[in-house]
Amino acid sequence: MRKFVDFVTDNPSKIIISIFAIFFFFSYWTKDITIDPDIMRALPKKIPERRYFDRVTDILPGKETIFIALKMKESLTIESINAVYNLTKNLEDIRGVERVLSPTNANNIKGTEEGFEISPNLNGLISSKEELEEFRTKFFSDETMAELLLGKDRKTFLTMLTISKTADSKKVTEHVIKVSEEFEGKNPIIEKIFFAGKPVATYFIGKMIGPDMRKLFSIGIALIFLIFFLYFKSLRGVLIPLFVVIFSVMVPLGTLPLLGLPFSHSLEVMPIIVMTIAVAYSIYFLVSYYQNLKIFTEKKELVRFVLFSLATPVLMSSLTDMAGFLGLNGSGVESLNELGIFTALGIFSGLIVSILFIPSVLILLKTPKNAKTKGELPGSKMAFIGRKVVADRVPILIFFGIIIILMFYGISKLDFETTTVGNLPKDHPLRESDRVINTQFSGSTILDIVIEGKEENTIKNIEVLSAINDLISYAKNLPYVGGARGFSDIVRKMNQVMHGNNKNYYRIPHKEEIEFYYDDGVEKTTKINGQELASQLIQLYEMSASPEDLASMVDTEYKMTKISIFLKNDRRTVLKETERKIKEFAEKKFKDLPVEIQTTGMVKLFIAINDRVVRGQFLSILIALSIVFLITSLMFRSIILGFYSIIPLFFSIIFNFGMMGLLKIKVSLETMVVSSIAIGVGVDYAIQFIYSLREKIRTGLKMEEAIPLVFSERGIAIFLNAIVVALGFFTLYFSSLKQISNMGYLMAQAMITACLGALIILPAIFLQFKIRFLRRAQ
Amino acid sequence: MKNFLLTLSFLITFILSNVYPQSGREIMEKVINKETWNDMTADLYLTIIDSRGGKREREIKSYMKKYGKDETKMLMFFLKPADVKGTSFLIVEHKDRDDDRYLYIPALRRVKRILSSGKGGSFMASDFSYYDIGKPELEDFKYNLIGEEKLGEVDCYVIECLPASPQIEKDTGYSKIVRWVRKDNYMILKSDYYSRDGKKFKVLDVEKIEEIEKVLFSTVMTMKEIISNRTSRMEFKNIKVNTGLKDLLFSETSMDRIVIE
Fold this sequence. Notes:
- The complex is a heterodimer of chains A (778) and B (261).
- With 778 residues, chain A is of the alpha+beta class.
- Helix content of chain A is 64%, strand content 11%.
- In chain A, strand 4 and strand 5 form a beta hairpin.
- Chain B is 15% helix and 47% strand.
- The longest helix of chain B is centred in the N-terminal third of the chain and has 18 residues.
């Protein structure tokens, strides 16, 4: 330690130059930062649900669906239909769009005695009433399609757009929205355009995150520096922490392009977290510096003293902070691992710049003139609180005991619901869009049921087709299900069309069918094989439809197909319940058939990841606690002190989950990571407190005397630190996104509770239970 | 001076005609109007291979006959897969209007006319369009000779074909085709197809050319669809030409008979 302190105090200029060199190096690289808003990249690739999703989208192309609803001023008129036709054409031309399904380009399967045709409902603009009538007839001839694409008010038309699996979802979504909005501006017949679907929701959220983060970062910096300025009343008290913060954020940001990594969604909260924690390190140094100004006349001696007393606890603090973030690796979600690693790197930079740069600058700068009065008042107030803790330890423990019981009640009320649209502000236009699409149409959330066999042509099997058909009918009657579509619908329609449009044939062919035919003008009947009929109907469709049409429904070898279930909301419980019922039904229905049934889809994937994070988070908490316990035990060279250091964290975590239950804050990816983060950062207070307390007791003081002294000397730094860190995190509360806002509130709360745990509960426990290790130390 | 200018212009013309001895159109004329057949019989193996290697295979017995310059009839009997055996497909290709297409469905004992989806429509759900498999019309495109290249060991002309009218572009679905034509026999070896938004989306490779009765045939062709990474492969075997196929064969009434010689 002495060597280190000598090094720092002997080479301030060299250190400052080196730090600036490092700073400029990383700042230079930040110019190459690329932003990758593709939500898919942020999702873990190794989990089974993702692998299955990727496999299915590889076989049946198209990963995500955008819903565009056009509300017209008029119902099915020439002008309104032509507008739908033109928009469809514009959307089809967008690169990265796999397929567009709209009332005008939906395939019409038409059959007469002589002929058969599969063609779009509309091949060009309508110019006469006759053509309009022809379109209407075609459109309404396919009831399923009409139900899917025409709103209940008969004025709103739905267009469903599938994004190609190789395309950048964000870019395609952005382009689609731009094209549609421009189109809306040019076509007065359109009353309003609504967008919905997972890509749109994530696009809007992504779009909000950037400005949101800039806003939050500015608020955070302003708030923290206001406090610094008010407390230190000097420019250096503000500028030094400012540089520490910027340096700490620049290092991880500059490392990203150096490693060839983009700035992804999951890293959006990283700058705020790093900023807050790095500021905390500055506080320890600056508070100690100002508090001891009057003791030392020689500024080098003062800085040496500050470094001697703080380097170890700050090092320990940063190690535990990093441990908390690295604990996120236990979640098994790659995006959280990334957040954990880069935040840890930011914290490490914060540590380096704090223990090297701050002392060096303080040595070079002149001692402040009015310094002698600083740091006196709060210390005495804190000593008063310390004395109260010593005196009222029993009521204190009872009070916190009651709170913990209340929090356990809160934990029993935890809400595991998740929703993407629900994350947006209440007045966000997407919320209205989602409501319109869910009330006018089948729904904007798609759950895919995948039916897969091992043998070629399994999907052509009429028993499999019938079971698929039954499953579609069953699904349609489930609550929140607005519609369902599958390959069996095509076979049914083909069967009907090939039987002169007779509605009795709107079904999958039976095993044995009786067919009428004419031989030399005489009507005859013959028994035919239903399986052959189905295969030949499929072949007829194959030969008439476009390969892309077919490819989105069934694979090349007829081994796999999917049923798309349209749900009216994206809530986790709705999805889980629908999935459960469908699986239950499918297990019975497909029992003796050579197929396997699984569910997938974008929303299902998000929920699976969320569930995984929630489950994995308990492991993360455990990992973080263990690492912190290990570090503190090593630091104090005492397992018992290591254990006491994490007691305030237990309180903080229980309080966090309890309040989430009581305030109905949903358990989600964002709110769950709070505990891991809180462990690393929150343990600082206990470390600082125990460290100082032990020092005092080693000098021969009794516990009762030592506690108020620790309060007066270190209490203010701990308290100010907690307030600043809590305020820093609390800036996230002002986010427009509900989950980030909740995250901000919970992190701030975790800091305050960890601080209270360290300053109030811990000494009360030490006193009440007469902790033996301290006596031995005495 | 006059003589000098005359000599110079003669020299320039001579040099140019040696560099590009023929125009793109002249080359394509030779491609299209080569020695050909009046009727032909062949076994066609059509395989569609998706990006993961999944295959859909068809075995077809095909008969074709030309009726002057303006009409060609093709009759195809499906032999495999087994569940569609007996299905037959009749295409009557017209020069100046949409094709007539008929499908016989044995299970229903009915011939159904498939209303044409234009020449740009997919041939049997493969990546070949009806335009790709039919005989090209010289007038449909404008041709530019854009260079000469070696494909493997073979010298080729590289011809850019641009639709002669917006209607042709709409019908075929192509905004441009770049073709590699063998210098020695005027057979097409490779073609790049560009979609209406100007992007290359399909590539045709002719893997085998055979001469049967003095007629050159591309007997193995693969068409690769770039975006979906799907390939369609056509292989012709047992080609026989000018055997005198009867007109009656190419009628709806013969579609319910599998003709295997």
